[in-house]
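Record 1 of the preview.
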Amino acid sequence: MPGSQTIIVLLGTLLLGIAAGLVGTFAVLRKRALVGDVVAHSALPGLCVAFMLLESRSILVLLSGALLSGLLGAACVSFLKRVTRLREDAVLGIVLSVFYGGGIALTRFIQNTWRSERVDLESFIIGRAATMLQEDVMQIGIVLTIAAVVVVLLFKELKLVSFDEQFCRVQGWSSTGLDGLLMLLTAITVIVGLPAAGVILTAALLIIPAAAARFWTDRLSHMMMIACAFGGLSGVTGTLISARIAGLPTGPLIVLTAAFIFVASWIFAPHRGVLFRAREGLDTSLLPWVAERQEDDGGAA
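->
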């Protein structure tokens, strides 16, 4: 990537990581993390339909179609959960697979039908962060600003619905409305991240930084800040590695960096980390050799 393009991609992935960490905090706490995965995979047919109807390569047109399709996928999950006795994981798997399969079929149909035009919808499957434009960065910045304003204005209410939904209702707040708002923020964040990470990987940016941050603190405000830091660090580190080593895609490297942070948090975090818990004797089952060593020492004594 040229120098100026690298700066654009760095800024875009940094802002995307921060936005994903902020919104993902509530998605993880509300156990709605996989909703982002459903939205991401459900977005692909929306991209295709938007192109076929308007025959426009405009990123705003494509992402608008993706947003509508992603919200439709999330609505299908809610509907099937109400009218069937299927478990939530089964419903999520059904909706995700059907929408994604339809998107793949439409993508190949477009590639075969519009051969005379340069249609690169398949880049949204794994992302195209290396070709990110200033307009993409501006869109991510707008989404981050909107999410930050919503969180600041409704912090107490979002905190209530995340930890005590029943008490939130007693206080007169609609948990359904707050859930709907969180779902909308999740969908917008996922959709705006498609150009960078793609359909397959973008939901990981929503889940992994927040899940890693959960190991370090029990306070919501601290968790949000740590998740934003982990998300931003993942975006910047993955981009820099991709820029230095030719041929390595940016999106997967961002996710792998986030995964490395998660594993490090799981092992080394105070109070919740594996090493700390094993040392304090709180959960030696995670390290069987520690448990055996302690039993041997006890027997010898």
